[in-house]
Amino acid sequence: MTRVEVAIVGAGFAGIGMAMALRRAGRDDFVLLERAASVGGTWRDNTYPGVACDVPSHLYGFAAHPNPSWSGTYARGPEIHEYLERVVEAEGLSDHVRLCAGMQWADWDAEHEAWRIGTAAGVVVADALVLACGRLTEPSIPDIAGLETFRGPLFHSARWDHSADLAGLRVGVVGTGASAVQLVPELARTAAHITLFQRSPAWIVPRGGGAYSEADRARFAEQPAALARLRDELYAEGEARFASRSGDAEASARAQAEALAHLHAQVADPALRAALTPDYAFGCKRVLLSDEFYPAVASDGVTLVPAALESAHGSTLVAADGSRHEVDALVLATGFASTRQPYADLVVGEHGETLARHWSTGMTSFASTVVAGFPNLFVLNGPNASLGHSSSVLMIEEQAAYTAGVLGRRQEVGGVLRVDPRAEQAYTDEIAAAAASTPWMTGGCRNWYVDERSGRLTLLWPGTVDAFRTRLARADGSEFLPAPATPAPLRGIA
Prior knowledge:
By secondary structure, this protein is an alpha/beta fold. The chain is 31% helix and 16% strand.
């Protein structure tokens, strides 16, 4: 058994960022529990052709670890994975990381006022538990009748089967979201043909950017101030982009016009253009960036099916519009379990309730980080902590700083931080009020930001990064009960 002050679950951006924040706060008694054989999170798991970030690379990193060596405006997946491995090494975190030690269960031990976490490598007991598990980790597999009859290569984009050679094959791709717009142009270069099933089109704007030259990278390395200025500029651009994503009429109109001009410039066929034109408000779903997707779809190598995949009969795929298509391989680019976080089923709070049960009508929290009924528990990149306009790393760093600060005040409340349910409800109401008039709630689309059980916005923070920082700065400790509450009897812990 391992005994630590803080157990962090997950060694992607959130977990590594949390470990860095603890170090800077003078706390070194922690462990990073990682289910896989290396750190990196989503950038370790997603290895599909063309995988890259759609946030500018010099904004998609830790403030304390600028990287002058990014290959271009938008970093590729393997680069980001390598970056995270370098940060772990530079921060001296390797001795804190436990690989192949994913969380199997976590129970609050009321008698000892600590968390007991079961892993494949044994039990860890911790005063505080930080869930840095990521929000896009478990692939969402659609319910497609007869999918089990498909005999060719079949896998989700986030679990790419590199042993499957798709060159020269007829490949079906399900979905036209962020992963699909990156992988379809790559597959189109070698596949015999691609059949692309589109439930609903996305708003797509030009990606732009390009490769950094050796001279650029040398300048960034030699002039840290220049690199810092670039990051500041990218940050300001991201904050300004919030207006178009959140429903500002003028900004949204400009962005939509840019997207439509992009579509018209790259797709000549009017019928295909119509099929690729969204019928919902700009920003309602995630806005995508690509300069290659439309040309690929408009080529002879791709057939767009403007309907969901409904069933499979061996190698024959039937769409919701009744059309039938023969394919040799099938790729599911169908996203992730986002509103119902898989780790929530594994965590049991002080009243014997799982986090999943507490979130049965959608995720709730205070400060997007702490949850009533779950003492000394912190969730990074969870409820209302995602962004649709800028870098999620910025939010992670704010949450990690808040968590480290709160842990420093634990002794003021007898060592146990219990969130006042009224504070959680008030914060939830704030989110609902801020989101009420946005395209995410009123834009006429179905998106993964909104929990289908309650109709609440549960993934996105409905504001800028500046606004999030300001909101967390207002937290003065009153979000926690002033004295330990008497816990209800706890169920047995193995």
